[in-house]
Amino acid sequence: MVRMVDVILKKRNGEVLSKEEIELFVEGYTNGTIPDYQASAFLMAVYFKGMNAEEQADLTMAMVNSGEQIDLSAIDGVKVDKHSTGGVGDTTTLILVPLVAACGVPVAKMSGRGLGHTGGTLDKLEAMEGFHIELTKEQFVKQVNDLKLAVIGQSGNLTPADQLIYALRDVTATVDSIPLIASSIMSKKIAAGADAIVLDVKSGDGAFMKTMEDAKALAEAMVAIGHQVGRQTMAVLSDMSQPLGNAIGNALEVKEAIETLQGKGPKDLTELCLVLGSQMIVLGGKAQTLVEAREMLEEVMANGEALRLFGELIAAQGGNAKVIEDLSLLPTAKFEKAVQAEHSGYITKMEADELGIAAMLLGAGRATKEDEIDLAVGITLHKKVGDYVEKGEALATIHANREDVAQSETLILKHMHIGANQVAPPALIGEVITCSEEK
Ligand code: URA
Ligand code: CA
């Protein structure tokens, strides 16, 4: 019989683990027969010695098999899911769901709330009064078959192993391990029933991965796992050194998503949605090439079809679809304050994470799971890296439900750097990572 101590020793010595050994760890830790101290030692060994692609795939599937899996086979077509590694003001999911669905790819989206500078996709949707994210399995499947799209909260007991292991990693300094992150993310996507997966892997100040090299390594690891377990997976590397789009805050981001679906969104956010959306359309089998897919997306944006479908989603899930033509139906904050530039010059740098904190301090995000968030508050940015600003001109507008916003204002002034020389904005889209055998 394999003992956990031998599995730890083997990994500590840098050897490759078998599927059975990895399952022993995942099953034992999930059912409580392996104690925290052995699991901690094991995770630290993985942190230092790594895992090859096959071990990562085995770890992923062991976590998938630790709980329920969503069966989406009753939905016609290739179910393509999208995952972003997270950033500041990332509104892409709200836009991509109707955009891709309008091109005929079914979108059965399970989303989270999450911690962070602003709420998750579910919180943003709930910024629309009446919108509910609880559907039964039958309602979910029917809605996707009828309308091509639905967004629900995570239900069921998906990947309990990942939840337990993640909580342990959090307190044993083993979160930032690429094999552990990659298997954690992929296990959740696979358990949620995705046939194909498009990953948006961000790097920069506002992202989990601070450097492009780390982001690329994470992307390659996740794509390799997808390939190993038979789910077509590809990743786009994108910039998160400055916030994406102009809005940071829940209702503000819904407004921005609607404007983007109307074709009037910020350039960077629109571009990233078209790039990710094109990959989803190709994986979903609705276009042969990325060029063809992009034309389809641009068309449903221009002819209003994607926006109309967003309205149908809202109506089907209890909200007021009129919001797509009347943005004043969204919650608004009591106070607005312009943050004025202290001198003239070019924006040279915007620290996304600090601007995210400025929004969180207003109440837009959660620091702990129990925190209530204020859906109306946040920040709209009027300048991005490379733009010129006059002294006294507004860099950003703070939307708040209290008068004292000094702390957020100070953060914005400090972290929107102004210099004498113009700098080029950071490249939004980096490499696209596909499995070498699929190229
Ligand atoms: N996000 C996840 O879901 N898992 C990780 O391990 C890290 C980030
Ligand atoms: Ca945004």
Overview of the molecule:
This protein is an alpha/beta fold. The chain has helices spanning 4-12, 19-31, 36-49, 53-64, 92-101, 121-126, 137-147, 160-170, 178-191, 212-228, 250-261, 267-283, 290-302, 305-316, 352-361, 406-415; strands at residues 80-84, 107-111, 149-153, 196-203, 232-239, 247-248, 335-340, 345-350, 378-381, 388-389, 394-400, 416-419, 429-434. Strands 1-4-5-13 form a four-stranded mixed beta sheet, sandwiched between helices. α10 links the parallel β4 (196-203) and β5. α4 (53-64) crosses α10 (212-228) and α9 (178-191) packs across α10. The longest helix has 17 residues, at 212-228. It is globular and about 70 Å long.
Descriptive tags:
single chain, 439 residues, alpha/beta, 4-stranded antiparallel β-sheet, 16 helices, binds uracil, binds calcium ion
Q: Which ligands accompany this protein? A: uracil, calcium ion
The gyration radius over C-alpha positions equals 22 Å
How much helix is in the residues? 40-55%
Q: Shape from CA axes?
A: globular
Strand content: 15-25%
Strand order of the largest sheet: 1-4-5-13
Q: Given the structure, what is the number of helices?
A: 16
Strand segment count: 13
- Quaternary state reads single chain
| Averaged pLDDT | 94
Low-confidence stretches: none
